Amino acid sequence: MLVILPLWEAEMGGSLEVRIYLVVGLIEFSVGKFRYFELNRPFPEEAVLHDISSNVTFLIFQIHSQYQNTTVSFSPTLLSNASETGTASGLVFILRPEQSTCTWYLGTSGIEPVQNMAILLSYSERDPIPGGCNLEFDLDIDPNIYLEYNFFETTIKFAPANLGYARGVDPPPCDAGMDQDSRWRLQYDVYQYFLPENDLTEEMLLKHLQRMVSVPQVKANALKVVTLTANDKTSVSFSSLPGQGVIYNVVVWDPFLNTSAAYVPAHTYACSFEAGEGSCASLGRVSSKVFFTLFALLGFFVCFFGHRFWKTELFFIGFIIMGFFFYILITRLTPIKYDVHLILTAVAGSVGGMFLVAVWWRFGILSICMLCVGLVLGFLISSVTFFTPLGNLKIFHDDGVFWVTFSCIAILIPVVFMGCLRILNILTCGVIGSYSVVLAVGSYLSTSLSYITLNVLKRALNKDFHRAFTNVPFQTNDFIILAVWGMLAVSGITLQIRRERGRPFFPPHPYKLWKQERERRVTNILDPSYHIPPLRERLYGRLSQIKELFQKEQPAGERTPLLL
């Protein structure tokens, strides 16, 4: 019995879609047309392409799914050097002379049906062959991009390409020489494409993958991150963005013939669609939401009232400094869970905040307190600087250069504002306080602005993060949150400058005030507080009252005889 299934066909680069019906077990493809179909475990599919043009030298077939693996193979029997399995799998078909038909096989090992999108692309003898000089992976010619990720970075790897050649001709040797007539003249452009934020649907992924399969579309839609030569290692790292869909592709270019070919694009969300801890559906821990919400409430208060409530601001600054360094320390030295990290960080930050307040209360050294305030503002400004494309310059991939430059920018801020400390303090209140609100929003809703400081934290925690490119998407949510951040910062700064006009720049030394008040009470007998007993006597009196509560009551009546 034949089973009929619906199949969708779409012209590449167009909006026209045609529904056709195919018999299960055989799928006919056309060059340059996307196909949407479903693969089932009991029904392996045979795919075929007819009427191949004589000027086509090789074909690249690729099939994509969101997170379930599919397999494409040259033969019905799966062999490691003749098949590829993954969410983005491709094969290169080197055509023989007079060959006009091509056959291959598709399947899945999963239990659930898998929705797929596939396409065939054709190339001529002048075009370079992606993966034509593969020595690392299983396929003889491997056009696939292999992707690995963790919390810190996402790394893509691919096999070197070879020069194109005509049908029936032996391929050029890969390592025979390094002159301009060999594959060493080829260059590799690495591209990155961001999916819409907060959208993990399969339809959105397959729709946007259509923009990343052919060379013209990749160049028109994606961001070129780096260009590699044949002498460079065919591996590139990027900052991981959990929950954010990203598509990567590589275009190999022959500068001598000015021809190009695209590899098979790979995609990732830097999280797992399987249920469990760290899955895409469970991003945004409750502990993070509680921590950053409380932090944002304090920051919001500091944004508008920090300079007036000087000790509260000092607690906020001390909390940031101690919490940041303590989190780095315990994360690098201990394997405890994230929630415990966050609790300990909150405790350590509170201790740091109280310590800075105590230093100000006892010693009253304004320069030390303002140095801490200026360094926090400098840290954020330095983080913003490296959040721009400047941070992806090759020179800053060296940790020594990066940290020296980062520290210099951070230290420059308090130095520049040395002569106007009140302005520095109010600026810090407005900018840092409002950014805490951005971090809180980032714990509930995906936003790229949280990576301003998170990228610096990742670099401090992971020794390999220096090689990662830190590009992030900047979409509608980010523009809205950026506008809110700017509005809060400007409002807080303006309000505090107007309110503090005509007032003393900073409050007086608390310890000196306390000593003066105590001496005044001792010498001024007309002051009612003069008659208040010292603190030690008051505490002793309170303890005596508490002891009386636990003493037995004396029985009523006379105990001694009445003396007459």
From TrEMBL:
Pfam families xrefs: Ig_TM7SF3_N (PF25992), TM7S3_TM198 (PF13886)
Biological source species: Macaca nemestrina
Localization per record: Membrane
Transmembrane keyword on record: yes
Spans traversing the lipid bilayer: 290-307, 314-334, 340-361, 368-388, 400-417, 424-445, 479-497
Protein's UniProt name: Transmembrane 7 superfamily member 3
Domain TM7S3/TM198-like: 293-497
PANTHER family: TRANSMEMBRANE 7 SUPERFAMILY MEMBER 3
GO biological process, one term: negative regulation of programmed cell death
InterPro entries named among the record's database cross-references: TM7S3/TM198-like_dom, TM7SF3
Keywords: Membrane, Transmembrane, Transmembrane helix
Gene: TM7SF3
GO cellular component, one term: plasma membrane
Topological relation to the membrane, as annotated: Multi-pass membrane protein
